[in-house]
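Entry 0007
Protein: Class I SAM-dependent methyltransferase
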Amino acid sequence: MSLPAPSPDALAASQALQQQIAADVARHGGSISFARFMEQALYAPGLGYYSGGAVKLGKDGDFTTAPELSPLFGAALARVAADIIAQSVPRILEFGAGTGKLARDVLTELAALGVTVEQYAIVELSGELRARQQEALRDFPQVRWLDALPDTFDGVILANEVLDAMPVDLVVKTEEGWREQRVTVRDGRFDYVAVELEPALAEQLVRQVPEHDSLPAGYVTELHPTAGAFMGTVGALLARGTGAAILLDYGFPAHEYYHPDRSAGTLMCHYRHHAHPDPFHLPGLEDITAHVDFTAMALAAQDAGADVLAYMSQAAFLLGAGIGDLLLRTDPADAKAYLPQANALHKLLSPAEMGELFKVLVVGKGIELSAVLAASDRAHRL
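Output (structure tokens):
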């Protein structure tokens, strides 16, 4: 695996985090869950990937998200948000707001539509990203940052590529049955060790993985209790009021996620625009992600009292939101302005790019989506 070398300072920070995690492994009798490893690699104060100071997004970071490709993405989301606000209240809550570009594009388009947002609240764990958001959104006085969730919420909740960064547990099917893949230290390096499933994880496996008994030995996959708990919180927030959450991410319904051919799971790391499968390479300097089990997410929100309003591909959602009309605001004769937006739109919509792998889950209470979006609903496939 050939990846760019980190700077001396970045390498020192990663080594400090590795020592911290290794000490945690020792304190816990020689192994920790992969979820605990992932949580520390991403969120350890001052050293984790999202809590450190390195640039995460864009050409100088490790990956690029949809809002960074084109303002049309946020403008299309704003159109759906406007419909929800018309049935609720003009408040928005965004989780993991990235560089702040999505918030800026959503607020700009809502203003153009004549919708005044009373409050745009952001929950952000990354200090570096929060600073970038504050700079990008300095002209929007309705934006504020929350350190804790409200008890109730009415309005629109946005979460773009949030669920995939939540810690996951790893499990492996052996000849003796299912085992948990935990993290240990062997010869000075992190490695996996398979141990008996704890009862709670065994219950999660049975609940989340269809046909788990028939999957072959050697099959490795992820379980998502943290993301499920988050969806339960979102569902409970919405169940007590009127509004909807729009969650966009890459993933599958359960019957596709746990297909026998997907035998190595979906865990993936991102480092300087290189994707690779080794989460033990430079902890703290790389993003660690897993695809989203949208069936589990929808059920968690539903169990908490919210309704599943829609599930569809990102392409269907953006087209239903009118992103094609938004593109035509730019004159095709103006090639210099039009072609970059058309190329970005192709990446957002193409089945070979983000259009089909990325999905949209909408959950809420007391909200009806437009007939165009409702016609694209594939919730029956969950």
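Curator remark: DSSP finds 14 helices and 16 strands in the chain. Residues 78 and 129 are 22 Å apart (CA to CA).
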